[in-house]
Amino acid sequence: MELNVDLIERTILPTGAFADEIKPKYLAIKHGKSIPTSWEHSFLNPRNRIDSLDPVKAPKWRIDGCCSLGTQFYTVPIFILGLAPMRIDTFIPELSTIAPEIREVLQADTAFHRQDARVSWLGISRYILRTLELWTSSIPDFKTFYTSLPFGSRILFENISTDIRQVRIRVVQTYALERKLLSLAQLKSLWGLPENSFPPTLDISEVQFIRQMHDSVSLVSVPGPGFERDLVILKSLTSFPRWLYHELRVLLNMPPHPNIIGRPLYLITKICQFGSKRAVLGFTTRYHSGGSLQDAVPLLRAQGKLELAMQFKWALQLTSALIHVRENARTFYSDLRMENLVLTQPGNDLVMVDFEQRGVWAQFPAPEISYLDAIYSLANSTVIPVRAQEKYKQLTKRYMGDTVPALSESYHNPEQGYCAPWIAMAREEQEAGMAYMLARVLWCIFEGLSCPEQPVWCSYEWEADLEFMEFRRSPVGVMRLIDECTKGRKELEDRFPAARKGNRFVLMQGRWRSGVLDEDYVGEGTVNEVRDEAMRWWKKELSDAEEFLEKREKGELNGRWKEYLKRPKLKDILVCLERLRSQLCT
């Protein structure tokens, strides 16, 4: 089964329970038996082939990565000196709408799940760069045109053609985003924090773009002492600013801890083109050049440099940071994954980043949180039948009550943020959820892997050869601790029945033997077979969710439903790790 946007809603997300009632968003161009075509329109005709995908000599543009399932590319006009981080990306049509022959030549399906700088190696990136070169030359004084666009504007490819001269390009100017941004005075009024709580402001024109590292993270430089410039991280969003402002408030209220990203250094502002409002569009934090654990851990393992003492150091630092978030900041950390843990240089110490409190991907958090997340997401879905949506709205109201803020594109300062499943949990349950996610990261650290499972929509330079709770390298004591911290988990045989294999989505029943992917047990599966298996799994998952939530509401949790409350406390995990380190690292 091909990877595409409709796949996500019809299989990967809870909406997959209603896959047979969801209409595809896009009219995909299918692979199938060849239909005879005239030589004039045949892809065998050299005239109909893409003329060249060779790298451009002396290029004017660069691609730093992509997101949005291979349709949004971080394109950078490198010929504009002193470029401000205006976050103007290039968007292409949904991949399933592109002719299969062109997709194959452009390696576009790989871009669906490859998000980092490796995407620049693909044919689709070279195609975009060559098209932008041609487009740039057609606009007089392109620099003035480009730098006058609103923050977060979009370069939109309306079609993909074998002849780049036939690509229709238009620019979407995002004035709507600027209207949602708030001024510093508005934020101060909302939060009521002391004046000295806020860092100084810096106009975006004084910030120079270096590299786009993630959808919301840019490496930039700001004025330093004398004529020097300092490298820092800019956090900004081009979608909904509510997450940005919530994270900013969390960080401003966060007591210092050596293993948590420090307070913002600057608030980055810009005068909006409508109303002349000076809006806060981002903030800067310290840049840690050691990279993320997601990349560092598997690389160190491959090099034979992943030492047990180093693993225990990171495990203890992370656990200490989580205790600090819970007890001193009086909040929760719902975004715990390897890419949100970075390393200092020098020192090689762990630092937690990303406090948007969005939560993690479907199927990745603890089961009890996944249950609430599934109910909540269906209540807010626009693709499932109305009768089903109404049912889950009622269940959301029943089990989450008034604790969950209404969804809004604008920011209204909700006390606990927007992550509904975590907000609806009692503090004891939040700690159990954090212990579960901590265990998954500990598994990655001690097994030397980048991720507990292989997500459909994201691939890594170092793909895992194990699945969570299969062990090869972890000490026995660590294995036991991880087992205790994940009580109530789904076992391998109960997990989602399909997975990404390369650029395809395939059935994976009976796929694991002693933790190794057995190629003999990988079944390609037709679109309907994959859909039906996913639908069956999600219907069972939703049934379990309703049973769990009803028992939880009545105080009748027992048996397997109560296992999650038996997970150790974060302080007990810290004590256990310290004891294991003293025993194993002497």
Describe the structure concisely.
With 586 residues, the chain is α+β, with helices and mostly antiparallel strands. The chain contains 17 helices and 17 strands.
Characterization of this structure:
With 586 residues, this protein is of the alpha+beta class. It contains 17 helices and 17 strands. It has helices at 5-12, 100-106, 108-111, 123-137, 142-147, 175-180, 184-191, 241-253, 293-302, 308-327, 367-379, 386-400, 420-423, 427-447, 476-485, 527-554, 570-584; strands at 61-67, 72-77, 89-91, 154-157, 169-172, 201-203, 208-214, 217-223, 229-236, 266-271, 278-286, 341-343, 350-352, 498-501, 504-507, 512-513, 516-517. A 6-stranded mixed β-sheet has the order 6-10-11-9-8-7, covered by helices on one side. A 5-stranded mixed β-sheet has the order 1-2-3-4-5, covered by helices on one side. Strand 12 (341-343) and strand 13 form a beta hairpin. Residues 27-36 and 511-522 have low confidence and may be disordered.
